[in-house]
């Protein structure tokens, strides 16, 4: 697996502390874009974004965490600045395996792992299937072992059906996905939690025919129902775990958070009032504090 590295002025760092951009090849030549901050020899923290975001969703947490840790923020394959291959599968099991390959490409035997939304869904799967590779786990407003609230379950199920149907796909590929997502995220922009430049990074690529084709390809492999095997193995998670949740999330019920915290031994639950789905944007200091508490907890020795 090959890598390419360079320094970049993007992000919130400065001077020698600027995020270091690199690309890693993880699956059949597909390129994943990553950014690293903090001391290269420090304990690694891997932060996974959710749908439809990119690594920029962690922009508030990166600088304080990078004071002590090697913070790595990838754009998951298909999102942000990473490749969007149409020849690869994006079903859940493949994606979890791909995440393990990302650790390999980054030369990480084990890592502290935090994931928001879809990233938390993948992080939970990796923790259960490769427990020795996860030192500590944080899940933030994610479907995790469950699924979405009823209206959004129907929306994502319909898009998934369109991605699988040769009859529906041509019309679905022409839908204005970028505009739809911009409208759904407009309240976050109006509240000052998200600027338009970051929003463009999240969804601008959906304005292209190639981007829309990949999005339908991705959803063709996506399945909305809960994954019962994830629920069954929650009690087997042995690493220190934090569950961090915005209580007013319209997409994902707080009951997912309480179930996670109740089932995972020793999990710490942080419920944030007046905070919705985009918890890292809406309550950045509280999220950083919860992650810092998790990272301060002793972790069992982790090996690959």
Strands, helices and their partners?
Layout: E1 3-7, E2 20-27, E3 30-37, E4 44-48, H1 62-66, E5 70-74, H2 92-105, E6 111-116, H3 118-129, E7 134-140, H4 150-164, H5 169-173, H6 177-190, H7 196-203, H8 209-221, H9 228-232, E8 241-246, H10 254-263, E9 268-272, H11 279-282, H12 284-296
Parallel strand pairs: 4-5, 4-6, 6-7, 7-8, 8-9
Antiparallel strand pairs: 1-2, 2-3, 3-5
Structure explained in plain terms:
Helices cover 39% and strands 18% of the residues. The protein contains 12 helices and 9 strands. It has helices at residues 62-66, 92-105, 118-129, 150-164, 169-173, 177-190, 196-203, 209-221, 228-232, 254-263, 279-282, 284-296; strands at 3-7, 20-27, 30-37, 44-48, 70-74, 111-116, 134-140, 241-246, 268-272. It has a 9-stranded mixed β-sheet with strand order 1-2-3-5-4-6-7-8-9, with helices on both faces.
Keywords:
globular; 39% helix; 304 residues; alpha/beta; nine-stranded mixed beta sheet
Strand order of the largest sheet: 1-2-3-5-4-6-7-8-9
Arithmetic mean of pLDDT: 93
Helix content: 25-40%
> Poorly predicted ranges (pLDDT <50, ≥5 residues)?
1-16
- What is the N-to-C order of secondary-structure elements (H for helix, E for strand)? EEEEHEHEHEHHHHHHEHEHH
Question: How much of the polypeptide forms β-strand, as a percent range?
Answer: 15-25%
Distance between the termini: 18 Å
Give the number of helices.
Answer: 12
Profile the largest sheet.
9 strands, mixed
């Amino acid at each position: 697996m090959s890598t390419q590295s360079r320094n970049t002025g993007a992000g919130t760092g400065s001077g020698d502390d600027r995020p270091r951009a690199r690309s890693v090849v993880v699956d059949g030549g597909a390129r994943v874009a990553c950014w690293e901050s903090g001391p290269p020899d420090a304990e690694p923290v891997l932060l996974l974004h959710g749908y439809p975001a990119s690594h920029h969703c962690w922009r508030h947490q990166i600088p304080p965490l990078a004071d002590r840790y090697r913070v790595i923020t990838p754009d998951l394959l298909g999102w942000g600045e990473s490749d969007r291959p149409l020849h690869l599968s994006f079903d859940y099991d493949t994606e979890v395996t791909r995440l393990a390959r990302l650790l390999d490409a980054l030369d990480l035997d084990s890592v502290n792992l935090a994931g928001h939304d879809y990233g938390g869904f993948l992080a939970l799967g990796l923790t259960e299937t490769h427990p020795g590779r996860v030192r500590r786990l944080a899940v933030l407003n994610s479907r995790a072992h469950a699924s979405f609230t009823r209206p959004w379950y129907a929306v994502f199920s319909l898009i998934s059906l369109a991605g699988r149907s040769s009859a529906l796909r041509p019309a679905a590929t022409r839908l204005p996905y970028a505009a739809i997502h911009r409208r759904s995220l407009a309240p976050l922009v109006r509240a000052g939690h998200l600027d338009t430049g970051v929003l463009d990074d999240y969804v601008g690529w959906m304005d292209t025919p190639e981007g829309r084709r990949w999005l339908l390809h991705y959803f063709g492999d996506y399945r909305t129902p809960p994954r019962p095997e994830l629920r069954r193995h929650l009690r087997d998670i042995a690493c220190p775990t934090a569950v961090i949740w915005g209580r007013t999330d319209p997409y994902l019920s707080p009951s997912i958070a309480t179930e996670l915290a109740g089932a995972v031994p020793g999990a710490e639950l942080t419920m944030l009032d007046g905070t919705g789905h985009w918890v890292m944007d809406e309550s950045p200091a509280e999220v950083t504090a919860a992650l810092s508490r998790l990272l301060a907890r002793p972790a069992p020795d982790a090996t690959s």
